[in-house]
Amino acid sequence: MKFIDASTIPRVVTFDKNPDNHPYLMKFFQSSAPKAMLFLNFSTGPFDSFKSAYSAAAEEFKDKEIKFLIGDIEASQGAFQYFGLKEDQTPLILIQDGDSKKFLKVHVEADQIVAWLKEYFDGKLTPFRKSEPIPEVNNEPVKVVVADNVHDFVFKSGKNVLIEFYAPWCGHCKKLAPILDEAATTLQSDEEVVIAKMDATANDVPSEFDVQGYPTLYFVTPSGKVTSYDSGRTADDIVDFIKKSKETAGAATTTTTQAPPACLCIPLRLCTQLHRGRWVFFS
After folding, report:
1. pLDDT tens-digit series, residues 129-139
2. CA geometry: angle at 256 spanning 255 and 262, to 5°?
3. Greatest Cα pair distance in the chain
4. From residue 220, how far is each of 48, 112, 138, 156, 217 by CA, in Å?
5. Is residue 96 a contact partner of residue 79, using CB atoms and an 8 Å limit?
6. How many whole angstroms separate alpha carbon 66 and alpha carbon 33?
7. In the predicted model, is pLDDT for residue 259 greater than 60?
8. Contacts by 105-112 with C-beta closer than 8 Å and gap 24+?
9. CA–CA distance, 268 with 278 (Å, rounded to integer)
10. CATH fold for domain 143-275
11. Among candidates 84, 89, 81, 79, which has minimal Cα distance to 130?
12. DSSP E strands: which ranges in 52-155?
C-alpha cells in the first residue's frame, strides 16, 4: 500500500468500490478520533444534495476532533453488518466516538445533518446500541443473551454466570457449543448457576468484558466478580471450575479487577480485523 500523508486525506473520505480510495479508508478507520459516517445509495436518490450538505458540514466542524466519511450502500455491507445497520434505514448517519459509543440517525434528510451534528457536540444525543431482539423463548440449556438484556441477565440476576462470546462462523466456537450444552445440562439442577452465550458479531459487547477473539468466556459471580475463563475445554473441566468458583446466595459484595481476556481458540490475527481497531470492511 502506498504511503498516505495525513495532509492529503480528503476532509470527507469516500467509501465505494474504487480501489484508489482504500488507502484513505484505512487511515480513516485506524484513527482513534470520533468518526461520522453517512451511508446512502450513490446510484439513486438525491445523492448530490447529500454530498454537498455533508461536505458543508465537514467544513463547518473542521475544528472539531471528528473525521467524516460518505459511503455507498453497495460497497459498505461489511460496515452495515459490523454496526448492526439495515439498508432500509438509509440515508443514515452514524457517529462512533473515541469511547466506542455510537449515535445513529436513520432516514436523515440532507438539511438535518448540521443540526444533528450540533446535538452530538452538545451532548444531547442518546447512544445507539447494537442488539439482537431479546429471545421470547429461552429454554435451551445454554441461555441466549443479547446486548439489551445482558446486564440484567449477567450482573443483576443474583446467579453465577459463565458467558461465552462467540461468532457464528467460528469453527472453534462450533466445536465448543455441544460441550457447553453438556456442562449446562449437568448443572441444570443448580439454581445458582447459569451458562449463557452471546453472538458478539450481532451485539455490542459490554465494556465489562474485553473480547479480542472467539470464543472468549467469562465467569461472573453474584457479587460482581468478573474472571476470564482459561481452564480446560471439556464439560467436566467447565463444571469443576464453576463448582469451585461459584458464590453462594448472600455472598458479600466485593470489588474486583477484571482479569485479562481469554481467547481460548482463535489467535487475534486469525479472528477478525474488526476487533483490532483496523476495521477492514473492503477487500
Report:
1. 889 999 999 99
2. 155
3. 63
4. 51, 43, 20, 10, 10
5. no
6. 6
7. no
8. 108/38, 110/46, 110/49, 110/50, 110/52, 110/53, 110/54, 111/53
9. 12
10. Glutaredoxin (3.40.30)
11. 84
12. 67-72, 92-96, 102-105, 143-144
Domain boundaries, the chain: 6-128, 143-275
Say if residues 239 and 183 touch (Cβ distance below 8 Å): yes
Query: What pLDDT does residue 7 have?
Result: 52
Query: What's the grid cell of residue 11?
Result: 476532509
**Share in percent of the chain as helix, strand, coil (round to 5):** 35, 20, 50
Please name which of 247, 207, 209 lies closest in space to residue 197, comparing C-alpha atoms: 209
Do 235 and 183 form a contact (C-beta atoms < 8 A)?
yes
Nearest to 210 by CA among 202, 218, 220, 201: 218
233: exposed, middle or buried (Cβ count in 10 Å: 0-12, 13-18, 19+): middle
pTM exceeding the 0.85 threshold for the entire prediction: no
* Amino acid at position 40, single letter: L
Q: Contact, 187 vs 242, CB < 8 A?
A: yes
CATH number of 6-128: 3.40.30.10
Q: Do domains 6-128 and 143-275 have the same CATH topology?
A: yes
Instruction: Please give the average per-residue pLDDT across 245-261, as a whole number.
Output: 56
The residue behind cell 439513486 is 44
Residue 266 C-alpha cell reads as: 482463535
